[in-house]
Amino acid sequence: MDSPPSEGESSTSQGESSTSQGELSPSRTVSRSSMMESIRSYGLSRLAGIKIDTDELSRRLLMPQYLRLAMLDSITKKDVDGGDQHFPSSGSADVPCPESPMIVFINPRSGGRNGPLLKERLQKLISEEQVLDLEDVKPHEFVRYGLACIEKWANDGDFCAKEIRQNIRIVVAGGDGTVGWVLGCLGELNQNGREPVPPVAIIPLGTGNDLSRSFGWGGSYPFTWKSGIKKTLHRASVGPVSNLDSWHVVVQMPGGEVADPPHSLKAAEECSLDKTLEIEGDLPDKVNFYEGVFYNYFSIGMDAKVAYGFHHFRNEKPHLAQGPLANKLYGRLSTLVTVAVRVGFSQLAQVIHV
């Protein structure tokens, strides 16, 4: 995981600078205060006084056009060789390579109505090919075809492809579920001996963003700060790399039950159980297994039921899930309704304490 840099940053905060244009109106003061709180919670306050040059940032992040097009064609065609026509016959020795090549995955359903706007801003900075919409490109498709295309040409002697594969970094714009989805797919690289695994930075667009908080990326993204995206990409390109523990989980269900698992769980045809486990009762004749990877925590019971319900609610009615506040309200109401159905409204006082 990519962690924000802790040294070499300015401590100047825009919230402390003076103004010569007279006093701010109350509404403008509140708006500015809210924006600065968002910036501080996101961990960007130390970068507020640093000017990030757009051209210099693009130079460090932007992959050569032939590699961008080859990668995207390989993903679209689901064929590692799908982008071969873009590679120069004369080689790439004279092609400048970026210091910190970057791929951004963005979940347009996260962040309320700001997801598409964020996507547009990112594409202007680092090209359309390097900003992947999760509605169109799944993380495993990038790993199996796009990144594999770069690996293929790196192994064939393309110098720029080799440098990019070695130094590439990933940014995920979404909630904890989206981050976990991408991390799980990148885990295939380690399992298949395709190191190094690219480090991952986070633009927190979800409701809780606990994983983002754990690594210093904050609990929300300051959409109102126009230079926030440049600061974020700068941090992601120079931040130190930290290790993240992960756990493999297997869920066993009686055969025949219909399930629609989230991205973090995939159906497994067969699975070996730990012989030291104590299993109460008899196993059913037919068993379905689902397996996946989790990071911060794995929920079981009512908490998982509410999160699972919100996942379907947002897919079916995205216009009602327009941001963290509305999403949290849905979670509170869903919890209340779930408890009420289980125990009855007359007994709520016995299970809820304020």
UniProtKB/TrEMBL annotation:
GO terms for biological process: phospholipase C-activating G protein-coupled receptor signaling pathway. One of its GO terms (cellular component) is membrane. Keywords: ATP-binding, Kinase, Nucleotide-binding, Stress response, Transferase. Residues 1-34 are annotated as: Disordered. GO terms for molecular function: ATP binding; ATP-dependent diacylglycerol kinase activity. Residues 24-34 have a biased composition (Polar residues). It is an enzyme of class 2 (transferase). Its EC number is 2.7.1.107. Residues 97-253 form the DAGKc domain. The keyword Nucleotide-binding applies. It comes from the Eukaryota. Residues 1-23 have a biased composition (Low complexity). The keyword Nucleotide-binding applies. Belongs to the eukaryotic diacylglycerol kinase family. Monomer. This is diacylglycerol kinase (ATP). It comes from Gossypium trilobum.
